[in-house]
């Protein structure tokens, strides 16, 4: 049974996507044009088109004389989420992707694009026809064998629902907008002294030893009182809060459900075994040798006749002395791959070689020599040197495999039938799950502790915890959680629709109960709080011990490595060795002199004292330094671009409204 559907081939739509990917990635100034994908309608109708709309939705931002309304923002936001949904499929999680930070970034992108477009219009930026033609012609998605193809160009645009005139007008505007910011980044260069200084810092190596004060060693030495637990509980209510979570009823249709209860009869097993014997054994094998007289492609009739005559003479000689076939092959065969081995071709099964050779080998008796056999390579003389009879595994050895395959085939049919029934019943009766489950032959399952963001730990969810169930992966799926907390399931108390998680897995969920966010009683979290406090106190004790040792070493530094320190490590900003990032940061912040020098830093629950023994300059690497310089130039360019954008925002009096702030925080209703 094939539960997984095959993927389609690349079509014109894919080429269209390649075209826009090129626009997004090909050149640096295309960074500005990237927003043509995020705000497509803006570029198709232009600024004036937006101004002509009468929209009652509140404004989220004002850019000069142009406004970005909530309707504009919601349209772009929906488009972005839909594209993410299509690309991520079952991994799509709206709660994690549609966050205040992502909404703020999206609004900033829209503002910056509107701003740059206004600057381009006000300053009459334009693009020549030649530049436009060259830019479009350089896009790989509209090229055929490296050359611009007008036919492919029209086909790709048609797949995106655009005409050449529309695309070219939009591209001309986009290139003009790019000219606003492009020169700023192109002129950005980091001074050579700065690049050299950064390279020196990155390649500099430091010789260090460390001593770790492990918090675990202090855990048994600390005490936690009931008063400590109560005080921590009262001060950390928010950290202890269990989020809103749902108890659910659901049905799962998968391969296991489709094959459950299928009985395979002995007669069916026997029939299947008989019909598939070639799969449960090994066919007859023959070992053969040959002598090849090659004939070049396109050889003349005379050349072919000469080669055939030579092969016939060798065939006669071999037939008169079959035992000497191997020596004859070594001396005369023109097959470099087998001649040295006496012409041995190895074990061969029927149907592998070209038809003429295959037929000849399978018609020969053991040790019999053939006549001349022609193939595309030339003329052959063949000999069968061994024959291995076919073997078939006993039915008992393959019985379990046959049963599984029959069940899978029957399950494929049942899965399709059950899926059809389940979908129909779920759509027909939305207020109860049992009729759909009964009609499809499935059982209703239950679980607790499903939240908008995932599954509660089993100890918090209690009995029937989804996190501890066999269906944890299903119930933690973003698509399942999105459906469970949708309005129709959460508010209207309907079943969800059929959610297809894979080609062989479907689920329908229904809300059983919704528990509001709550802080658990002290008695139920006492052990958890005690463990937390014990760990905190142990970490503090480790830190105090480490800081005391550090103070002693700094007061009375010694030249030799003190007791308790580990082996020497050579580290740099690029090569941390065994050091964590926090410890490495402390190491590289120590002055170059004097040495030895000491510092200390918390590393998780532990405390680490570091001894810096020596500092050495790194070895110069011209290629690495050139790459670093380019990275610094790019970073500088981005910083200058941002500075120009900030300046233009002030010049055009960009304002974000209070309504926008509420929508971004999720305090006001936004569509989508």
Q: Tell me the number of helical segments per DSSP (H or I, 4 or more residues long).
A: 28
The major beta sheet can be summarized as: 4 strands, antiparallel
Helicity level: 40-55%
Class by helix and strand content? alpha+beta
CATH superfamily of the largest domain: Porin chaperone SurA, peptide-binding domain
What is the general shape?
A: extended
CATH class of the largest domain: Mainly Alpha
Q: Which architecture of the largest domain per CATH? A: Orthogonal Bundle
How would you write the strand order of the largest sheet? 16-5-18-17
**End-to-end separation:** 39 Å
**Any idea what the radius of gyration is?**
38 Å
Proportion of strand residues: 15-25%
Low confidence ranges: 1-55
> Looking at CATH, which topology of the largest domain would you report?
Triger factor/SurA peptide-binding fold
Number of strands: 19
- Count structural domains: 4
On the 0 to 100 scale, the average pLDDT is: 86
Tell me briefly what this model is:
With about 675 residues, this protein is an alpha+beta fold. It contains 28 helices and 19 strands. The chain is extended, with a radius of gyration of 38 Å.
Describe the structure.
This protein is of the alpha+beta class. It has four domains: 12-188 and 652-665, Triger factor/SurA peptide-binding fold (Orthogonal Bundle); 205-214 and 523-616; 242-261 and 406-515; 284-389, Roll (Chitinase A, domain 3). Helices cover 51% and strands 17% of the residues. Strands 16-5-18-17 form a four-stranded antiparallel beta sheet. The protein has a four-stranded antiparallel beta sheet with strand order 13-6-15-14. A four-stranded antiparallel beta sheet has the order 9-8-11-10, sandwiched between helices. Strand 3 (143-144) and strand 4 form a beta hairpin. The two termini are 39 Å apart.
